[in-house]
Structures are given as structure tokens and as C-alpha cells.
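Hi C.,

You asked whether I'd gotten around to modeling the 327-residue construct. I have! Everything is below, sequence then structure, no commentary in between.
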Amino acid sequence: MLRLPPFRYVAPRTLEEAVAILAEGGPDAAAMSGGTDLLPHMKRRQRTPALVVGLRHLRELRGIHRTPEGGITVGAACTLHHVSHDPEVLLQYPALADAAAQVASPTLRRMGSIGGNLCIETRCTYFDLPEHTRIASGRCLKDGGNICLAAPSSPRCWAIASSDTAPLLIALGAQVRLVGPDGERVILLQNLYRHDGLRPLALRPAEILTEILLPPADGLRAVYRKVRRRGSIDFPLVGVAAALRSNGGSLIEDARIVVGAVASAPLVAVEAGRQLVGRPLDADAIAAAASAAAYPARPLDNADLAGAWRKHMVRVTVERALRGLAL
């Protein structure tokens, strides 16, 4: 049985206090909401913080609210179950509710938060193993070694970004509010991610993701499709989010396609979106967009099932997602 290492747990009363504690703790401190990602990593000794700062009870990180402009804000500590069942989310952004409902299992969705899913640790079959196995096989870059076992000739880590909600929220144009010792800032969610499996998030020291800000839907239709081995629990082998807006007729005026679980950050398929703009969503446009989305995807053999198969499934899944929007 894997057991947690010794650590001290603190539950601050305010967001300001949480930021101060994280800043004081430095690299030895870790923020935790539901714990469904951090605690398993601690059990496998992939992370061993001396201090864990609890966030899930903070009022500033909870609740889903409609904005005066017609969008919504989602507190980062809202559970995935809450997001998938919230009436406002279901009304304006049903694809977000669907993406949240595809994460893990019902039990884990009642614990895991949407902020935690956006900040989930990158994954790799060479890294996601108990400590004794990693020692025996040789430690990788992400584990304190000096080589990426998935791509030995590469100078960087190629662990995979496997969030289900991030691709969909990026396609919807979401922003996130970050609060740290230097105050708060609001950035596009897309800019939170870096193509580096070792340091995948552009968070500053002691900075906390507090809120997701969604613009008004304004006729935007979206969908999230997930490929996984089983119908529940599993991380995505490929995740595809698509969001389209028509010009009032049959032509598409805005299109965004984002692919997850094929790189160290969600892959924004810019050319795939361009292939759709100004065209009706017919078979030719769908085929062109799917081909354009698959071209930049470079999945490696560091996940369940081969990288070549996963690359093929990018094309297939984009086609399926767009056909769903065409109905």
C-alpha cells in the first residue's frame, strides 16, 4: 500500500492568508483544493511538499455567478460535479458541463475542483509509477534525472497535458484570475500553459488560480469529445474541443479547435479553425479541418496506447466533434 509522506496541513481563513503562507513556504509548500491530483503524486513520492495549504473552503474561490455582460464566473474551488450540474452552466455552456462530467469518476468529481483540473500535473508512463519502479528503470527529467525517457535526444520533458476542461475552456475564450504576492492579474487561459512537461504552468511563485471568467456565449456552439480506454475514470488519450459561431446563415464566422493529451500543453489548432471560417459546415470543410488539426499533433509513446494511433485519432475525433455540431 502506498502511504502519504509526512507533511503539515494548514487551512487558511482567507485568500490573502493563503497567498502569504504559500509565499513563506516557498518551494516546500503546495496548494491543494480537492487533492485528487496532488495526493496520489505524494503517495508515489513524485511530489513531497512539507506544507500543504488547503483552499477548497475559501469563500473567494467558490460559486458560479452570472456577470453583468452576460457571461459567467466559475470559482476555482467549485467541484467538477457542481460545474457539470449548475443550471447557469447548463444553460449557457452545456459543453463545459459535459467536459466536466467526463473527468474521472462520480466520486472523484465530487472531490476534484475545476481549478485543480486546469492545473493538473502533466502525465507520462515513464513518470506515473511508484518510486521504487522509477528508481529501477532510471529517473527521468521530471523525476530529477537528466533525460526524457520518452524522447531521449530532446533537452526537455515531453509529459502530457491531460486536462479535460482546459481544451474546452480555451475554445470558449476563457480567462483566469490569478492572485499572488504581487496582486492579481487576469490572463487568457491559453497563456497559462507552456509547452514544457516539467514546468507546464506559467504561474508565479505563491500564485493561486482563483476564478475562471467566461465571455457571453453569443451564439457560440461548442462540443468536447474524449477518447479513453474505458468509459469512466481514465485520463484522455485524445481530447478535442471545438467551438463555432455562424454568421446568422450557413457560413461559419469564427471557429476554434483545441486538442488535448497530445502535447505538454493544450494544442490550439489555428489552421484547423481557418479551414472552417467562411464556409458551411459540410463534409469537405470538416475533412479539411480534421486534417489540419492532426498535422501539428506529435504524440509520443508515453501514454496508454501508441503515439501513432493517438495521432490518427486526432483526425477521427475532430471529424466526430464537428459532425456533432453540424447536426
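If it helps when you're writing up: Residues 36 and 108 are 7 Å apart (CA to CA).

Thanks,
B.
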